[in-house]
Amino acid sequence: MTVGMRPAILGDLSLICRLRVQRTAWLTARGSDQWTVAGRGRPIEIFAGAVGRSLDAGETWIAEVDGEPAGTITVNHRSDPGLWSASELAESVIVHFMIVDLRFAGRRIGHHMLTHAAELAGREHRHWVRLDAWTTNTELHDYYRRAGFALARIAGPGAVGPSRALFERRTDDWPIAQVVIPALRTRFG
Q1: Lowest-confidence range among 37-46, 72-81, 110-119, 179-188?
Q2: CATH number for the domain harbouring residue 171
Q3: Residue 103 carries which DSSP code?
């Protein structure tokens, strides 16, 4: 199995929305309110607008398995208000909207996408990969812990929205061949 990452294009917006709807239904069936309107998640139209802006900015990527779309991730330097401080944002990339197609679950697609985020951080000489996770989805928290992330904190009352569990992993914590070498090539080559 070969996993590759490519920049997403505007034509991928319907795919990304389909992945979000698919995963929301899966989460709901498991008893989670993640991404549901009832759980204070963004309606799909608002989600599509946010992803569209990220597509325009070149911040969204598609993971492919043997050329077939298997997941998506957005990586930038922004977060919702009240989550990360300005200094935390300045030294990190922020992961958003990471979704794996259920057909590819269990194949470490998420691992590949998070490693890609670390590579992007390394190229920009940023020391952290950070993300916010749905506060009540403890299975998701466990996933990020298994992926090497640590819970930094649960954001306080100044944060808005239901994703207030803040996780982080140092960029230099990924294997050197995957993160540091591309960063050195960018800097010196």
Answers
A1: 179-188
A2: 3.40.630.30
A3: G
